[in-house]
Amino acid sequence: MAGSGSERAAVELCKGINGLDKVVLRGPRGSSAEVYFEVRVEGLETLDYLDNLENKERFTEQGDALTFESEVDKVYLGAPTKIAILDHEKKRTFVLRKDGLPDAVVWNPWDKKAKTMTDFGDDEYMHMLCVEAAAAEKPITLKPGEEWKGRLELSAVPSSYCSGQLDPQKVLQSS
C-alpha cells in the first residue's frame, strides 16, 4: 500500500456466511495493487486445504508462504492458533489468534470476480485480503441449551521485516 505515512489500512469486522465475525483488511483508496500484494500470509504452509475454486477439491499447500497474484478462495484445515499477515510495504505484521475454530479461510476475488459482485467495487480486490477463522470441515452444531465458545483476535505489530529484522516465525511463536 503505497502512500503517505498517515494512511492506514482499515480493519473491518463483518459477519461471515456462518454468522461468525470475520476480519477484512482494506487498504486506503488509491493504493497500488502491485505494491499492496507484497503481502504474505505465514503459518499455513504445508497444510491441507479445500479449494473453493476447484469444487472444494483437497490439496496440500506447497509454498513457503501464501502470496497473491490471482483469485483465491481456500479453506485451510487444522490451521494453527496463530497466523501472521506480513505487509512488506508498510513494514507491519498482523497476527490473527483464534481459539475454538480449527480452520482458516483466505479469500480475495481478484479482478474478474470483483466486477461481478454488486456490493464490491471493481478495484476493491486490490485493497483487501480476507483471512478468517472458521469451522468449515466439521461445522459446529449445537443442540438446544448447549454452548460453544470461539475467539478471534487481530493484533497489529509494527515490524521491520522488510529489512530482515523481524523473524516471522518468532511472531508466530510468541504469546
From TrEMBL:
This is APOSPORY-ASSOCIATED PROTEIN C-RELATED. SUPFAM superfamilies: Galactose mutarotase-like. The lineage of its organism: Eukaryota, Viridiplantae, Streptophyta, Embryophyta, Tracheophyta. InterPro entries: Aldose_1/G6P_1-epimerase, Gal_mutarotase_sf_dom, GH-type_carb-bd. GO terms for biological process: carbohydrate metabolic process. GO terms for molecular function: carbohydrate binding; glucose-6-phosphate 1-epimerase activity. Pfam families: Aldose_epim. GO terms for cellular component: cytoplasm.
